[in-house]
Amino acid sequence: MKILLYFEHKGVRGVWVLAEIVKTFRGEDRVSYWHADARLYPFRVIFKPIFPKVKKRGLDVDMLDKVKPITREELSHYIPVFRTPGDRWSLFIFGETKTRGVTYPYEKFRRIWIEFETRNSSLPTVDRLTHDNLVDIIFKIGEMQGRFPEKEYPLEESRVDVVWRRIARGNPYIVFEVNLKGGDLYRDLVKLKHAFDLWNAIPVLVTTKDKIKQAQQWIQGSFHEIEEFFRVVSVEEIVTLYEKKKEFKEFERKLRLF
After folding, report:
1. Number of domains in the chain
2. Structural domain of 165
3. I need a labelling partner for 144 at 20 to 30 A (CA). Which of 31, 36, 116, 159 fits?
4. Is the pLDDT of residue 34 over 80?
5. CA dist., res. 15 & res. 5, Å (int)
């Protein structure tokens, strides 16, 4: 189970750490570093930080100096309680709002998590990007675009790399396949054609510059009936779009246009 850790660091309140719950238990013993009586808080949680990544010694406060948090002001865009002055110890549960105990819909949690990951991530150089790197990039672009992306989306007996949906429970309206060195280009084009037939989704092939000509020849030949709908973009173009989107989001944040 994933969690967002909110606290104050060097005068800034916000989400500073992404973590996952390792263990929950009930304890009655006193905890040496707590000032209050431990028996007042019998329900305990042990968590493991996901970001920033920690070493064996645990989370070092100095590591937070390099983190770009989701500030309290930004959180107020997602969670109404942050629009009121003052903070108090709170536990918010995100999930299906009809479920007892759930405070806010899971979609809010997902967007905060992705925003945190995006602003704190860095890319390897283009020549070192892997298939998974590019799938993550396309996924994050979809998030920044306000869409509902999903990786490894089922397509009958196979899967496509990434889809974007306009609404959470709708059909995909854009489908992406990433094809790098060693990948079966024709097979990926067939999957994109099938996705178009099934969902009327825009088919997008992301590939290396040296494969673009071959892809276009096949599209104009074997897939000529939907040639006008196909999109073929280079790895460099996708990376550029991602970086520009990040810059735009950062500019919005500076202007407080959440």
Report:
1. 2
2. 126-240
3. 159
4. no
5. 5
